[in-house]
Amino acid sequence: MSQKTEELKAVSRTTITRRQWIWKEMKKNKVAYLMVAPYMILFTIFTVLPVVLSAFISFTNFNMIDIAGTEFLFFENYISLFFDDDIFLIACKNTLIFAAIVGPVSYLMSFLVAWFINELSPRIRALVTLVFYAPSISGQVFTIWGAFFGSDAYSWANAWLMEIGMITEPINWFKDVKYIMPLCIIVALWTSLGTSFLSFIAGLQGIDRSMYEAGAVDGVKNRWQELWYITLPSMRPQLMFGAIMAITGAFGFGGIVDALCGFPSTDYAAHTIMHHLNDYAGSRYEMGYASAIAVVLFAIMIGANMVVKRALSKVGT
Amino acid sequence: MAKLRTRKHKVVLSRSAGGDAGITVLLVILGVFMFLPMVYAVSQSLKPLDELWMYPPRFFAKNPTWTNFRDLFMLMNTSWVPFSRYIFNTILISVGGTFGHLFLASLCAYALAKIKFPGGQVMFKTVQTSLMFHSTITAVCSFMIMSAFHMIDTLWAVIVPAWASTLGLYLMKQFMDTNVHDTVLESARLDGAREIHIWWTIAMPMVKPAWLTLIIYSFQGLWNSGSSIYIYSEQWKSFNYAIGQITAGGIRRAGASAAAMVLMMAVPIIVFVVSQSNIIETMGSSGMKD
Fold it and tell me: Are residues B45 and B141 located together in one domain of the fold?
């Protein structure tokens, strides 16, 4: 009998090929394609296509002013980026420093704050959430730091430093090469408890309480062990999502510098890859070169994402 | 947060007093760091001009006034393009962009989450990867594509891409995966309901927190959108951009710009407070399945 069913299966498998099967499935699910189409078409036009196009254009000298003179350059843009463009190297250095500090710190801060407030009563938790989340949704409010660290004696930082005799004349905080990076990093951290913060709070709320009881029975001694063996492993999806948000935020940083230091910042002290890209695309219209910068930035972000993914897979082991 | 008792068996989890104290202190310090600048922003907007330029500066206003807000509204009335125009633009962008996105993304998310069809997985994987595309990376080519569609220097250049933004679709898909149960959908299908009908009358009410969250995210982003590289005509610029112009006026405008800042931050905060409970609930199922 078993032989018979084998035969039957074999027959049914050969009656349609894989391609025919897919075609049949596609026809059966026509509705699904109709439902997906409007979003997917727009998504392709405004997200996928630009990325693919940039990758292609980065190998040419495409220029908005002289479109007819477009030539295929192979890797010339990339070579000049890394060997002839000193400002790009400064931008790379700044971006990496910035991302290496702001990415991890904002990620840890988001998680720790979410974890600390998790055991508070709901009403207090809601209030604390608002306090920490508000700076990231309030648009331009970070420019208040510009008033705090203003250039004249009427700003807080200068007035009080002069009052206690630390300095004799006001410091031009956001124009002084020594202070630009640290200040911008502080402001960026201040605005960084955003989407991932909310996602962590929700992830923590969603953990099944009985797992902690089981842990206590199994010999989990303190809250740190609890965190490592129970909490972190059970919210891995949120951790991954938060990491992607932190990476995009840390590498795409730039708007804060523009608003506080002006563009370009003094001696390019806070010039990031994003500024460099905007400079070439927005002011010089050298799209080929700008696209090469974009591709490099994207590659760095993908790399950072892979590193983070690997690190997160070790959590709780 | 002295001792955490779990509901069922009253097992006392290990919590040391020292740990609690340490965490509380840390939280308070961080909280002050986060909150003080916001308070300072509000107090700046309430200071009369002479107090803004007082040495040494005071943190709180001594004689709080509404003068700055009045100055701001007067400045708005004298601008070259009427201020109502900027506000109209921003509201149109925020509302149009948000609801278009909500409609398209939830429709797409329903099909991706609840109907199995060839290619669905690939589509979602692409969307997931594109969470990492920063808008700067795509800006150059978006510009060219938009000019091909004659969208440059119209509000469409902001609204249409917002319809296809990624975070919203991602949220809706994750939420539909976990919160809409297949058995309900199956019985509806057996009754002969059409998919579009099931999406609207069964799935959408089940994921109400998700679309509330989507509205808030999208609205915040669009409300705060400043000058876009795709728009250069003055009459199509956003409220945030115009506020920025006032702030850029320098010392003479210090009072008005402090007021403008408070005005701009109030709207997203109010929107968040109103819907906070819903947001937190949603984010619980928004994680990334590795």
Answer: no
Q: B127 and B49: one domain?
A: no
pLDDT tens readout for residues B95-108: 899 999 999 999 99
ipTM here: 0.80
For A163, the token pair is 């009052």
**Domain enclosing residue B25, as ranges:** 17-65
Q: Write the single-letter amino acid at A234.
A: S
Residues in chain A closer than 8 A to B132 (CB atoms): 244, 247-248, 298, 301-302, 305
Tens digit of each residue's pLDDT (9 = 90 or more) over B62-91: 888 888 888 888 877 777 777 788 888 888
Nearest alpha carbon to residue B177 among A157, A237, A132, A34:
A237
* Side-chain half-sphere CA neighbours of A230 within 13 A: 25
Pair B130, A47: CB distance under 8 Å = yes
- Enumerate residues 58 to 77 of chain A having a beta carbon within 8 A of any beta carbon in chain B: none
Ordered domains of chain A (ranges, CATH): 1-57 (no CATH), 78-313 (1.10.3720.10)
pLDDT tens-digit series, residues A89-139: 999 999 999 999 999 999 999 999 988 888 787 778 888 888 898 888 877
Tokens of A131: 């306090």
Same domain? B30 vs B96: no
| Chain B residues lying within 8 Å of A106, measured CB to CB | none
Domain count, chain B: 2
